[in-house]
Amino acid sequence: MNGLQAFDERLGALIGNLSPAARKEMARTIAKRLRAGQQQNIKRQQAPDGTPFKPRKAPARKKKGRVKREMFAKMRTAKYLKAKGSADDAVIEFTGNVQRMARVHHYGLRDRPARGGKDVQYDARPLMGISERDIHIINDIIMRYLE
């Protein structure tokens, strides 16, 4: 977070000079671009730092002809992964019950996959985060709005 704090301090005064409508538009643009990057990371089955997710413990093929879909295929859609921007912040978040499921997988918590089932310890698979590439994207967008 120290890198983000220094980044925030340097550009805070310049961003404060923008009108609230311009800040809101800029935050919305940043959130949409970051959401696209997070969706690509989830599609590639890798953490924001580039390390691959740990594979499932259960095989992907149980019966002949049946293949489970990749992990988190629906979670990465715009229906569940929302991007919002206001004059003060840009937010990317999971919504509804997906938020709980994302938290369990992100931190590697225990959960019940079925209502009456046993608790399962999930491996940590970080779904969201900011990488160096994301910081450069944010920098570029801010510089474009400040020109």
From TrEMBL:
Source organism: Candidatus Erwinia dacicola
InterPro entries: Phage_virion_morphogenesis
Pfam families named in the record: Phage_tail_S (PF05069)
Record-given protein name: Phage virion morphogenesis protein
Region (Disordered): 35-67
Basic residues compositional bias, start-end: 54-67
